[in-house]
């Protein structure tokens, strides 16, 4: 079996072949590492690849599988499906001894002294961590153009962005550098890049996954979640990383359902889940400026769900229009507080001669933070300042309550999930929105209300517009991740024969050409 074939399997297919002894984790890991190392000059999805540690983890996984095979009985079936399977981590996840830059020069040279909770969980199940992926600085952005180390390209078109802030993980999964990836979603930073790269990306309920060891942006909004190439793989990765962590006071004790590991494998069974489901179609999510091709694909997806037996009802979330303004008060305010710790003393480089602490502090932050981070810190500091706290931050929190109440009313009426666009546009060209921050912020108009309400949401591929991926978003009640993934699996089943399902990203061949230029600014 060729290395290229190994990288094309879905994670659940890799798991089955590992247990059958058809392949080894070392072979699988080496194939992905080699592909990433060969192609990343044109993609820039990776900030670091840890070949040595990854191969050691793969060999350990192979030993665990061999031991289970020797035990007989149900020992092999009892292994977690991620044992021996490669995973990419966004570079704000702490891995003991490894770099953790959060896409910022102010953390250049910093080495994490401990593992994040999700890193521990991944090690427990035996997943193989390949390395760390590129991201918008401190997760502030919608394109991965705000990384201090240069942008990531979209494998569907290397002249376009992959979305952000988790664009590195999304691009790595889309380009077959990894079957699975980890991102964080503060206002859409998993779902939006998933939509733009044709992958599956899920933001779990706030509190479902511990934030311990995750570099913070906005603490009441950030949530860790999976990237994958189908719903079954996303469910398995979520199962591995979710659960209570006593070190994170916002981590929920709600049990993680084992059903996440048992989504239907049969398309007929998966499609049957859709029958009788009540799905709300919120009119406010078809925002001004939405591209016609995006709207067309989303409405086609909704029609397919109806044809499969789902009941689709027009619904309203009246406070959605206030979501963007509310988010860009709450998130920068929390960022202002969280980023105060980067002072040139405790983390990363320190500028200045050490004789004037204030001058050194200003020099370190002035040089270490990028333009977008400075913009949001200034906005947040202003919103929290004396005389403006009540007018801005407090009022935004009140509106946030109203946004959540809109969703709660629909769950009370028996709506099982909402269906909506993920992004109002397909992937845009590098530089197209860098001069207009508001235009960039509008990229998340369809995703950020979910974060404001703390709900789970998932983006699944829904076809192409002008040759570029479109995402369908499903939104559920708190703790309904398993149901959302079942619905996503059902949609995959009813569209399995669609021509676009068989397509690979259009610019993959260019990544194999050493003459292909790196993304601008790398």
Protein described:
The protein has 522 residues and is of the alpha/beta class. It has 2 domains: 3-264 and 271-321 and 401-511, Alpha-Beta Complex (Amidase signature (AS) enzymes); 322-400, no CATH class. 41% of the residues lie in helices and 11% in strands. The protein has an 11-stranded mixed beta sheet, sandwiched between helices. A hairpin with a 2-residue loop joins strand 10 (457-465) and strand 11 (468-475). It starts with a helix and ends in an 11-residue tail after the last helix. The model has no long low-confidence stretch (mean pLDDT 96).
User: What is the arithmetic mean of pLDDT?
Assistant: 96
CATH T-level fold name of the largest domain = Amidase signature (AS) enzymes
Q: C-alpha Rg, in Å? A: 22 Å
Number of strands: 11
Judging by the overall fold, what is the CATH architecture of the largest domain?
Answer: Alpha-Beta Complex
Provide the number of structural domains: 2
CATH C-level name of the largest domain: Alpha Beta
CATH superfamily of the largest domain: Amidase signature (AS) domain
């Amino acid at each position: 079996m060729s290395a290229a074939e190994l990288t094309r399997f879905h994670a659940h297919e890799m798991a089955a072949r590992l247990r059958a002894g058809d392949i080894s984790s070392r072979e699988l890991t080496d194939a992905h590492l080699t592909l990433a190392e060969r192609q990343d000059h044109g993609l820039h999805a990776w900030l670091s690849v840890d070949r040595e540690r990854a191969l050691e983890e793969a060999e350990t996984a192979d030993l665990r599988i061999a031991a289970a095979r020797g035990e007989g009985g149900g020992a092999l079936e009892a292994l977690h499906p991620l044992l021996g399977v490669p995973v990419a981590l966004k570079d704000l996840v702490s891995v003991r001894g490894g770099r953790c830059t959060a896409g910022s020069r102010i953390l250049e040279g910093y080495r994490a002294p401990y593992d994040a909770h999700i890193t521990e969980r991944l090690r427990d199940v035996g997943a193989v961590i390949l390395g760390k992926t590129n991201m918008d600085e401190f997760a502030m952005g919608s394109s991965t153009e705000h990384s201090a180390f240069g942008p990531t390209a979209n494998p569907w078109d290397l002249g376009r962005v992959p979305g952000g802030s988790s664009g590195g993980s999304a691009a790595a999964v889309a380009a077959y550098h990894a079957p699975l990836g980890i991102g964080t979603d503060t206002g859409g930073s998993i779902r939006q890049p998933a939509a733009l790269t044709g992958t599956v990306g899920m933001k779990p309920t706030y509190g479902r996954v511990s934030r311990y060891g995750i570099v913070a942006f906005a603490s009441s909004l950030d949530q860790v979640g999976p990237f994958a190439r189908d719903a079954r793989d996303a469910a398995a990765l979520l199962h591995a990383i979710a659960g209570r962590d006593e070190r994170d006071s916002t981590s929920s004790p709600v049990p993680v359902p084992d059903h996440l590991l048992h989504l239907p494998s049969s398309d007929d069974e998966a499609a049957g889940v859709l029958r009788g489901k009540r799905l709300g179609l919120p009119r406010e999510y078809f925002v001004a400026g939405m591209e016609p091709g995006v709207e067309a694909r989303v409405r086609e997806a909704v029609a397919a769900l109806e044809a499969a037996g789902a009941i689709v009802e027009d619904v309203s979330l009246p406070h959605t229009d206030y979501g963007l303004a509310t988010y860009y008060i709450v998130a920068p305010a929390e960022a202002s507080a969280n980023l105060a710790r980067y002072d040139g003393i405790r983390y990363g480089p320190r500028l200045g001669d050490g004789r004037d602490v204030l001058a050194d502090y200003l020099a370190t932050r002035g040089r270490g933070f990028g333009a977008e981070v400075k913009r949001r810190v200034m906005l947040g500091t202003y919103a929290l300042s004396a005389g403006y706290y009540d007018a801005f931050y407090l009022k935004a929190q009140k509106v946030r309550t109203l946004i959540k109440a809109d969703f709660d009313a629909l769950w009370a009426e028996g709506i099982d999930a909402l269906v909506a666009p993920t992004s109002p546009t397909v992937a845009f060209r590098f530089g197209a929105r860098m001069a207009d921050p508001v235009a960039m912020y509008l990229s998340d108009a369809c995703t950020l209300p979910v974060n404001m309400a703390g709900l789970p949401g998932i983006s699944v591929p829904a076809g192409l517009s002008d040759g570029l991926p479109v995402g369908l978003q499903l939104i559920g009640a708190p703790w309904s991740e398993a149901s959302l993934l079942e619905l996503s699996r059902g949609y995959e089943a009813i569209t399995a024969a669609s021509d676009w399902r068989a397509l690979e990203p259009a610019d993959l061949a260019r990544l194999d050409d050493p003459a292909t230029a790196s993304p601008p600014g790398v």
